[in-house]
Amino acid sequence: MTNSAQKPKTLWAWTAATALGVGFGKPGPGTWGSVAAVLIWFAVGAFSHLSRASMAWGTLAAAIIVTLIGIPAATRVEQECGRQDPGFVVLDEVAGQWLTLVACPVEWRHALLGLLLFRLFDIVKPWPVRRLERLPGGTGIMLDDVAAGLLGLVVMQLVLHWW
């Protein structure tokens, strides 16, 4: 027997939280979210001809905006699907990935290293990343990846300085 009385879904929240549906990619929706974020960042950097400073400020602004949208969107989606931190919510990966890339030159090797660093910190969740994951609703969903992105940013800048 099918349940015809499914909970309605809030379109804006599901569209945002899944990064326009990228979160439904299999396997590893979080990785797909990160790859999409890197590809967008790289395309904007390669085709916009922005200065490095403008690209950095734009990336930071985009990460902040995505985080501010992501907190209520992820909260709503979590409530509507009845699952805590559902894997298909990947806007957190987008925000965290962009934070890792904030001050990077737009080159494929930096994009790849940024992807690997962010995914490492997002999966391993060193302190304080894991602690932030415990925050309620969309706040925890988003802020653990923001912290992973900031750790990725620090390591990326150290690599760029010494490499």
UniProtKB/TrEMBL annotation:
Domain of life (superkingdom): Bacteria
GO BP term, pick one: lipid metabolic process
An example molecular function term from Gene Ontology annotations: phosphatidylglycerophosphatase activity
Span of domain YutG/PgpA: 16-159
Keywords of this entry: Membrane, Transmembrane, Transmembrane helix
A Pfam family that the UniProt record links to this protein: PgpA
Transmembrane segments: 31-50, 57-75
SUPFAM superfamilies given in the database record: YutG-like
Protein name, UniProt field: Phosphatidylglycerophosphatase A
